[in-house]
Amino acid sequence: RRGGSSIGGPVAVSMPELPEVERARCLAEEHLVGKQVAQLQWQEDDKVLDWEGGLERIRQLEGQRVVASKRKGKHMWLEFDVSECPCLAFHFGMTGSLEVRGKGAMMYKSFKTDADNWPPRFWKLIVTTDDGTEMAFTDSRRFGRIRLLNDPLACNPIGALGFDPLLDMMALEPFCDHLRSKGAPIKAALLDQSFVAGVGNWVADEVLYQARVHPEVRSSKLSDTQLGRIHSALGNVIHTACACNADASRFPPSWLFHYRWTGKRSSSIDGRAISFVTVGGRTSAFVPSLQLKTDPNTPPTASGSDVIASAKATPVRQVSKKASQKLRQTGGLLVDKKATAKRQAGGPALPGARRSPRLSGSNEFARFQISPQALGL
User: Fold this and answer.
1) Each residue of 107-150: pLDDT tens digit?
2) Three-state DSSP class for 272?
3) pLDDT tens for residues 215-260?
């Protein structure tokens, strides 16, 4: 279900999301920051190496000191002591990973980092520092990107990202306002990187499971209570996963995460069945008995058709045994003496009214059945 590193690295998942990339950022911070770049090596791969300026720009980084390792969402980058030098930015795609020789590596469900050989398989870039430390970026499926960016936060794609729930969690009110304005399913809304950066498939599923919200419910239909639970769960999942250094074996045992990796085969958590549905182009794991499309604590807003149905189905009043006898005598109608006298005098009857079926018994109900036309609907 989950993988592990043979060099004591964390157990991670099939694709890097915010917690996994934060782990990679910490790895670079621990082993590269404060050191001088002695050499850069790269593979000729125009798909992964997405930089302009070619050899001259990348060679600028040799001899420079790494001063910071930063991240936003699923992107991270290294900053150098000379402001004219571009930052070295990484996007991990589906199988991107960082590995520090002899120190640690990320590992994902879909592939294992080559810890036994150096350079490791599928390497795209190796950074060697002045003390001999070597860090490699690997990517077997080649959906990751390595870029040279002068100002990552001002450049696309990083500049187009929404808020980062670890670094700058959005306040509850604007969070709710944004989701109320969206007609997309809540799962798709959480995966929108222009809204919240770094949330991927497993994080979104975990958030919705903890918030007890069905992944298909429309964002605009969520109650205030549901929105509040989603906001709280998002912060909790992200902070907890990062505090565990993205080591899934340390995630709370109550998390859906531990039970969802079944390839859509039947599974359960605490005796409750896990189901799968495609939302926003992604397979979503959820627990139908807990994750509802409607909030059971919030009454629905009545529409015109609801009012009609209520008028037909809801009793006007409960009658006593004595009143029931009178009803039988009048054919099952509640008799208003004044209204009866008015009708006998030729006054107008209530339009659209018809007599209810005959009632009997002291616990029966009497009512008028009113047509929609009579209600003006």
Assistant:
1) 554 445 666 789 999 999 999 999 999 999 999 898 899 999 99
2) strand
3) 999 999 999 999 999 999 999 999 999 999 999 999 999 999 999 8
Q: Return the SS3 of 172.
A: helix
CA-wise closest residue to 20 among 132, 126, 166, 148: 166
Report whether the peptide linkage leading into residue 157 is cis, meaning its omega lies within 30 degrees of zero: yes
Residue 23 in contact with residue 250, Cβ under 8 Å?
Answer: no
Return d(Cα 308, Cα 314) in angstroms, integer: 10
CA 314 to CA 251: how far, in whole Å?
A: 50
User: Which residue in 70, 74, 124, 187 is the catalytic one?
Assistant: 74
Helix/strand/coil percent split, the chain, to 5 = 30, 20, 50
What is the side-by-side order of every strand in the sheet holding 267-269? 267-269, 272-279, 282-286
| Catalytic status, residue 74 | yes
Amino acid 337: pLDDT: 52
pLDDT digits (tens, 9 = 90+) for 53-81: 667 788 899 999 999 999 999 999 999 99
DSSP, res 184: S
Among 83, 107, 100, smallest CA distance to 3 is for 107
Q: Is 16 a catalytic residue?
A: yes
- Asked if 361 and 344 touch (Cβ cutoff 8 Å), the reply is no
Q: Which of 16, 86, 152, 215 is catalytic?
A: 16
